Amino acid sequence: MGRMPAAFPWFRLPAILMEPAAMPHAISLDSLTSHDFETVAALGAAIWRKHFISMITLEQIDYMVSGRYTPEKLSRYLDAPDRWFRLLRVDGQPSGYCSYALTGQPGEMKLEQLYLLEALRGLGLGGRMMDEVEAAARAKGCAMLMLTVNRHNADAIAVYEKRGFSVREQVVADIGNGFVMDDYVMAKRLR
Q1: What is the pLDDT along the chain (191 residues), one digit of tens a residue?
Q2: Cβ distance 165 to 153 under 8 Å?
Q3: Where would I find the N-acetyltransferase domain in this sequence (predicted)?
Q4: Is the separation of the CB atoms in 100 and 109 below 8 Å?
Q5: What is 25-189's CATH topology?
């Protein structure tokens, strides 16, 4: 898959979303629609390129983003009975997203993704997305919420630990093209 073309739509994100933010006024967490696919791809590329560059190579970032945010992959969340994708909008602007799904284990849900533009971190928005995921897990009768996180993503690991997650195991998964994901599997018992 290689590098994304220079015309990849992440360049279209409003410049204001790349600057430090004041406390937002209007916050919404909306279900994904097919009209959001390009926005999510742009947001994903912007977040990944800025956040993960100290953990994995730009080539791996481009490889993962180009395979993860295709219309075919994103369409799996539309009307699916066992997986969900929420787009966070802050003052009307796309600012982050989370996705989650039931796993094959009874009573278990997986937080698949939770990403937020750097300028908006520290305002409680990631916590709002996590609250949404935990509430959805409880509503589906799940007693366990799990996730995977890059082993070198110390900030995210600290946030997850603060929210009650602990490391269950370490996994290294071959994702093709010579790349691996070196992750912790973390889990939290829901009360």
Answers
A1: 444 444 444 444 544 444 555 566 799 999 999 999 999 999 999 999 999 999 999 999 999 999 999 999 999 999 899 999 999 999 999 999 999 999 999 999 999 999 999 999 999 999 999 999 999 999 999 999 999 999 999 999 999 999 999 999 999 999 999 999 999 999 999 98
A2: no
A3: 27-191
A4: yes
A5: Aminopeptidase (3.40.630)
